[in-house]
Specification:
Structural class of chain A: alpha/beta
Oligomer: homodimer
Strand content of chain A: 15-25%
Distance between the termini of chain A: 32 Å
Largest interface: A-B, 57 and 58 residues
Number of strands of chain A: 14
Shape of chain A: globular
Largest sheet of chain A: 7 strands, mixed
Order of helices and strands of chain A: EEEHHHHHEHEHEHEEEHEHEEEEH
Chain lengths: ~350, ~350
C-alpha cells in the first residue's frame, strides 16, 4: 500500500542526495528539503526536519552515504576512518534516538566487514550504499508488518487515540503507531482517530493530523489536556503510540506526555498499545530508569509559536521524553508479533527468538 | 496583604468606569483596559480580557453599574426593567460561569428589594452601586479567607502544582487556588510552584506564571502533558486548582485538563485540592453530569498562537471545561473551612451551616 507522500528518499544514484518533507513547515506548507552533505543531515535531524526513530535511522544511513559518496581511490583504512568520523558526527544530532546509533553502528559494521574481507576503499563505499538502501527497504517492510500485526486488534467502527507522531512521517514507510490504522483502513474498517496536539512541538496537530487527513482517515485534533475528558466520555476504544526506546523489561520511552496518556488509559480501562520495531529495544537497559531524558531549550515551551507565551525570565522545564512503566502497557506490537502485558521475560523471549537483542 | 497589581476595579464615583488588566495581552504587555458600558463588559467577559469565576462575578456587578449609572428620574418599574435587561445582556457573555448569574441575580434582587420597599428609581440606582461595591469588597475578603484556610496545609519547602489560572487575576482579590500560596509565602514559608501552561488559551503560562513571578514566588512553567512526568519524579507535594462550578455531591467543573491532573494526582498519591468560594456551589446540580460543557471555537486550538498549527479543514474538538468526580478530590477549601473527601453529605453540611446553598 502506498500513501500520497514520501517522508524521505534517496534521489539519484551515486552521487545522489536526500529529499525529505520539511516537517517543521507542516501543516501549512509542504516543502521538499534537499540534503546534500553530512552537516546538512545533522542539521535536519537536530532541527526535527526529519524526526521519529525509524526515519532518523534511515536519515543517518543516508547521511553516511552522503559523506562517503565522493570518496574515490582511498585505502580501506582511510575509507573506514572517514566512515567512522562521519558516523561520529551524525551521532551527535540527537542523544536519545537509539535508532540513530543502531543505523550508524550497522553502517560502520558493514564497512568493517568489507574491509576485513579484503575489499578496497571503493568497494567499501559501494557496500555502504547497498547497506543504506537496505536499511531503507527494511524500514518500509517493517512498517507494513507492524501495520498488519497491529490491525488485528482494530475493529470496524472503532475510535483510536494517538500522541505525537509515530506515523508515516516518522519512518520511511507507513509509520509505526499509525501503521495499524492505515492497514485497518485499507482493509475497509471505518476508523476515527483523536490526535493529541502534543506540546511543545505540536507533532500531533501539525504532522499526525496532516498525514491521516492526506490518507483520507477521519481525524480530530485535541489539546493534550483533553485526552482524559475524551476518554471519560467513552469515545476511545484503544490508544496506539510509538516509542523512541524500550527497555528489556518493557518500560517505554516516548514523547513527553505519553506517560500521562498511559495513566489515563488505565483509569478508563482502555488498552494502551505501543507499536515499535524490534530495533527500538535496547538490551543495555534493564529498566526505564536508566533512560536519559533529553531536556530541550526553554524557548520551545515559552516561544513555541513565534510569540512569547510565558513571562520573560520565568523558569521553564522542558523534558522531551518520559518513561511509561511496562505495567501500564497492554501490548507492544512488533514485526515479530504482539508482546502482551510486557515484562522482562516476555520481551526477551520475543527478542531472542527474532535474534534481535540490540545495543 | 497587597499584590503589586489590581485585576479590576471601579474608577471614580457615579458616573465612573471599570479599569481591568487586559489579560489577553499578558504576559508580554501589561495594558489597563477601560470598560465604559454594558456591551464593552460583555465583550471583555467573552474575549476573556477578564476571566475566572469570581472576577466575572465582580465584572458582571460592575457591568450593571455601568448600565444604570446614567439613569435619572425614572420610575421604580422603569429602573427595574432596565436593570433586568442589562442583567440579561450580561448573562449571555459566558454560559458556564455560575458566578456571572449569581452576581447578576444578586444585583437584580437588590433592585427588587429596594423597589418593594418603596424606593424611587434614583434610590434604586444608588442601591445598585452599594451592592456592586459590596460584591467587590466581599470577593476580596473571601479570597483572603480562602488563602488562610488553604495555607494551613502548605508546609515550608513544598512544591505545588496548579492548572489554568485561579489566581489574583481570576478575582478582585488574591485569587482562589493561588491564594493559599500567597498567604503561605506571606507567612514566610518557602514554596515553589509548577504551572501547567493550560492549552488552548495558555492561562497558566501567560497569567499564573506572570502573577506568581510578580509576587516573587518561584514558578516553573510546564506544558500540560508534562504533569504526569513531573509527579512521577516526586517533585509535587500537592495540587491546588480552582473551579467554575461545583455540584452538590462535590463533582468539580473546571478548566479543561483539570480532570487529567486529578487522575494523575491519584495515581501518584498526591492530594488534589480545589479552592472555591461557596458561591461556586450550585445546588441545582446533584452531580457533575448535569453540568453543560461549553465548546469554544476551533481556532483557539488550531490557530491559538496567530499561526496555523493544524491542517486547514482538520476537525478540532475544543471543550472548555471538564468535570472531576468528587472521588478524586482530597479536599475543597472554602471560606467556611475545609470540606475533606467531599460527598453530598459533607458538601451540604458545610453549605447549610454557612447559609450558602445558592442557585
Amino acid at each position: 500500500m502506498e500513501l500520497p507522500f514520501q517522508t524521505l528518499q534517496w534521489v539519484g544514484g551515486r552521487p545522489g542526495h536526500v529529499s525529505m518533507i520539511e516537517q517543521t513547515l507542516l501543516p501549512t506548507q509542504r516543502v521538499d528539503h534537499e540534503v546534500r552533505d553530512v552537516l546538512g543531515m545533522v542539521d535536519a535531524i537536530y532541527r526535527l526536519a526529519v524526526r521519529g526513530a525509524p526515519a532518523i535511522g534511515v536519515a543517518a544511513a543516508f547521511g553516511v552515504m552522503l559523506g562517503v559518496q565522493e570518496l574515490r581511490g582511498l585505502s580501506p583504512e582511510e575509507t573506514l576512518g572517514r566512515t567512522r568520523e562521519i558516523a561520529a558526527t551524525l551521532a551527535k544530532a540527537r542523544p536519545t534516538a537509539v535508532n540513530l546509533f543502531w543505523a550508524l553502528d550497522r553502517m560502520v559494521a558493514r564497512a568493517d566487514r568489507e574491509a576485513s574481507a579484503g575489499a578496497d576503499g571503493d568497494a567499501i563505499v559501494v557496500a555502504l550504499f547497498e547497506e543504506g538502501h537496505e536499511i531503507y527497504r527494511e524500514d518500509r517492510e517493517t512498517c507494513l508488518r507492524l501495520g498488519e500485526v497491529g490491525a488485528e486488534r482494530i475493529s470496524d467502527g472503532q475510535t483510536l487515540l494517538t500522541h505525537c507522531n509515530a506515523g508515516a512521517l516518522a519512518t520511511a514507510g507507513i509509520g509505526t503507531a499509525l501503521a495499524p490504522m492505515y492497514v485497518a483502513a485499507h482493509q475497509g474498517k471505518r476508523i476515527s482517530v483523536f490526535a493529541d496536539e502534543t506540546r511543545p512541538l505540536l507533532q500531533g496537530a501539525r504532522i499526525t493530523a496532516w498525514e491521516l487527513a492526506q490518507a483520507g482517515i477521519d481525524v480530530t485534533v485535541i489539546t493534550d489536556n483533553m485526552a482524559g475528558h475524551v476518554m471519560k466520555s467513552g469515545k476511545i476504544d484503544a490508544v496506539f503510540v510509538g516509542s523512541d526506546r524500550i527497555a528489556r523489561n518493557g518500560d517505554v520511552c516516548n514523547k513527553i506526555g505519553t506517560y500521562s496518556v498511559a495513566v489515563l488509559a488505565k483509569e478508563h480501562g482502555i488498552p494502551f498499545y505501543v507499536v515499535a520495531p524490534l530495533s527500538t529495544f535496547d538490551r543495555e537497559l534493564t529498566d526505564g530508569s536508566q533512560i536519559p531524558i533529553e531536556e530541550r531549550p526553554e524557548e520551545e515551551v515559552a516561544e513555541g509559536f513565534g510569540k512569547r507565551t510565558a513571562p520573560v525570565g520565568a523558569k521553564v522545564f522542558n523534558p522531551a521524553f518520559d518513561v511509561t512503566p511496562a505495567a501500564l502497557v497492554a501490548g507492544i506490537v512488533t514485526e515479530a508479533g504482539w508482546i502482551d502485558r510486557p515484562n522482562r521475560e516476555r520481551v526477551e523471549a520475543v527478542l531472542r527468538e527474532a535474534g534481535a537483542l540490540t545495543g
